[in-house]
Amino acid sequence: MNTSRFMLSGIDVLPFVVRITSQKVRRCFSWIEPSYTLSEFSGGSFALDSSIAQAQHIDLLILPETNLILVASVIEPLRAANRIAGRTLYSWSLFSPDGRAIETKSGIPVPVAGAFRPQRETAPLFVLSSYHWQRSATSQLKMLLSQTARHREMMAGIESGSWLLAETSLLDNFSATTHWEDFEDFAAAYPQVTMVRERFVIDRKRITTGGSLPTLDLMLELIRRAHGYSLALEVSRLFIYEQERTRGDLLQVPAIGNMRILDTRVGAAVKLMEETVEAPLTLARLARRVGVSARHLQDLFKETMGVAPHEHYLALRLNAARRKVIETRMEFADIAAISGFNSSSSFSRSYRAHYRESPSETRRRLKLKN
């Protein structure tokens, strides 16, 4: 059995034109490592210095009868990251086996840039499939995948796309996962693949996922590895997304799907930061509220999130301010006040240092663009 558990119908197609390419692919995708465990390591704030601001480009090969939600699970977190960062961190291009628009399982067509061909492209390639992947597994397509694998920095099998990669021997001697209903069949069919019961697996130059929501988990993890916890948390909050939630929990929580903030004290501090953007707390008050010393909280942030508390706090406040700059006509002095800045000048300085343009330049640029 090779089916997806998530189906969408009756919704508008997103403006898909997909391909994730990069001018610095090796650097941007340095998160690929020979381990499938979700160990915590340094991230960094999402201040956009020149070393990480190059756009990453991804190619997506989408097979017929793929669920629309699966496509959105890859693209929408990247679109959200671009929106929050205020510049293009990610770009993408969609391809199909024959160059025709993909007919998704819900009957909504997704336009593509053309037919997939094995170019000497190093950009990551995501292979997306939900139903009946075997119908697309022609000898020609398998040959094309084998050829392109020689040059790709990374290849990902998204949901049933993992079957096609395995069928092409591209998962041999790698760890991988697939949807839980297909797990035993996959393991029996491809004994040369080390199967792991995880929502997604990153093993060196290969990635696999176990469904649509695990794919969202994956994209948040990739954003975190490339640009740090702060940006990944902001993307997660846009989707009001968390893996587990009890009835008493607030909607906006410091969680990134399967990659939660493991230290509860850091999680509590992040939640307090999100609730006090307009009137920021001092480090000492934050620490008292979560029951640790200021020095200990600073160390915990460094260990868990890879940044100091004030860096994450500032990133949250600037993101809140940027939304007002972009989406409203509020005076900058008012935006500064509701974002916890003492004056317009201090707000403008921090804004420029973070986004490499002033608030007025942001509005002027968007006005010209529109």
TrEMBL record:
<dbReference type="InterPro" id="IPR050204">
    <property type="entry name" value="AraC_XylS_family_regulators"/>
</dbReference>
<dbReference type="GO" id="GO:0043565">
    <property type="term" value="F:sequence-specific DNA binding"/>
</dbReference>
<dbReference type="InterPro" id="IPR018062">
    <property type="entry name" value="HTH_AraC-typ_CS"/>
</dbReference>
<keyword id="KW-0238">DNA-binding</keyword>
<dbReference type="InterPro" id="IPR018060">
    <property type="entry name" value="HTH_AraC"/>
</dbReference>
<dbReference type="GO" id="GO:0003700">
    <property type="term" value="F:DNA-binding transcription factor activity"/>
</dbReference>
<feature type="domain" description="HTH araC/xylS-type">
    <location>
        <begin position="267"/>
        <end position="365"/>
    </location>
</feature>
<keyword id="KW-0805">Transcription regulation</keyword>
<keyword id="KW-0804">Transcription</keyword>
<dbReference type="InterPro" id="IPR009057">
    <property type="entry name" value="Homeodomain-like_sf"/>
</dbReference>
<dbReference type="InterPro" id="IPR029062">
    <property type="entry name" value="Class_I_gatase-like"/>
</dbReference>
<dbReference type="Pfam" id="PF12833">
    <property type="entry name" value="HTH_18"/>
</dbReference>
<protein>
    <submittedName>
        <fullName>Transcription regulator AraC family</fullName>
    </submittedName>
</protein>
